[in-house]
Amino acid sequence: MEEVIRSKGYSTNQVKFLEEGEFIIPGFIDTHTHAVQYPNLGKGGQFELLDWLKYVVFPKEKQFKDHNFARDVFHDVIRRSLDFGTTTSCYYSSLHLGASRILADIVNQLGQRAFVGKCNMDRKDPENPHYVEASTEESIDDTLRLISHIRSLVPISKHASLGTFPEPLVQPILTPRFALSCTEECLFKLGHIADAHDRARRGREEPRLRIQTHIAENPREYREVVEKYPNAKGSYAKVYEMHGVLRETTILGHGIHLTDEDIHWIKKSNAGISHCPTSNFYLTSGIAPVGRYLDEGLKVGLGTDVGGGYAASMLNVIQNASIASKMLEAEQRERDSRGNNSDECFEHTEKHFTNRKFRTETLLYLATLGGAEVCNLAKRTGSLSEGKSFDALVVSILDETGALGVWGKEAKSQCPSSEVQRIEKLEENLERFLFCGDDRNIRRVYVQGRLVGGKAFRDSPVNGY
Ligand code: GUN
Ligand code: FE
């Protein structure tokens, strides 16, 4: 039926028409978020990364030692995330094993597809003496305990075991927070755990152990990393590569200031990039050239990066990804206009995405299938193609109480008569939803065929809350 992803050979059923003003799209995939930072939303935007971690983030994350606090926060986080249409999420917990177990339990109960990781933070840092693990041994032991705990979770409903793939909904993910928070020994050991896991599953259709971390988010961070790891000879990506944690299953948050050498290592490993533009703006980190990464053939998805990102909704991230791409295009135009035959040179570039504004279908791709590729989950989610799990959103822009208000009415009154008009209308409605919609327009959220969120779910007396 309607195909709207056409650029770069992506061609898959992404948007299905239901009736005027209503359509189905694949669920959003948040490839990078910190469940423990939701209480910090909209706090600390005056800082840049390392001071923000020190003054805003670490003091809050310390509180997750308290299990009751953790339970309350995580319940809200997962409910909100589902209602915003996020069907798959990659969660960083705190450094605590207890809180991380609770997070996995709640995700499992509420039926979201997710990866849950406990932060490895075993490097002693005189700047942050109060939020650090006791030893490398404890960091690794707790990581292994969390993996066993998550693997032993029983899916809450028979729906959760549907599908052709044995991959469970909730899975563990190794989470070395970033190069500055881990010792070399810890990184090596995590690489060995990933190796051992890959060896053990050889030949069997079993889930792979993913890894998530941050990379090249901020210039000062980059400088400190290459100073601390002189053997990496100036490359941040090489630090991860040298220790065996840069792999096909690795999700790299941010990647704003990557050098050509970094890109080389990332490409070689086939790791993916989680583009977090809301956070990148909020913490004045910069604009990631993700158009270039797409042209280089890297896997790219989107992430909220709560609480670096001030919004839990992927719609906000889509909007900021659009703005980021438009700023890069405007800068490119400016550079070109200083040259001689500027426009010509810009218009005829061979690149599809480098320094070009993203089209609506590319934004939708990044928020769905791109994210699935980054998570190595594209066989089972990320689009409405046959054979995948039904992870999807029913969207309505008709509801006058919804964010689109009066435009919703307009959508209803202009019934397209031909198939072509109908597709055009659908594309227009999609753009309006992505830029002006909110959770009121998300009526139903399905994960693996099970209704787990959305306005209709909330309004039902059984699920009402
Ligand atoms: N780098 C290391 N930890 C973090 C974090 O919690 N958020 C962001 N945005 N960057 C980080
Ligand atoms: Fe982050």
UniProtKB/TrEMBL annotation:
Cofactor section: Zn(2+)
Any one Gene Ontology biological process term? guanine metabolic process
- What keywords are annotated for this sequence in UniProt? Hydrolase, Metal-binding, Zinc
| GO CC term (a single one) | cytosol
Which GO-annotated molecular functions does the record name? guanine deaminase activity; zinc ion binding
Keyword Metal-binding listed? The answer is yes
Q: Where is the Amidohydrolase-related domain?
A: 23-452
The positions making up the signal sequence are none
InterPro entries of this UniProt entry? Amidohydro-rel, Metal-dep_hydrolase_composite, Metal_Hydrolase, Metallo-dep_hydrolases
By what name is this protein known? Amidohydrolase-related domain-containing protein
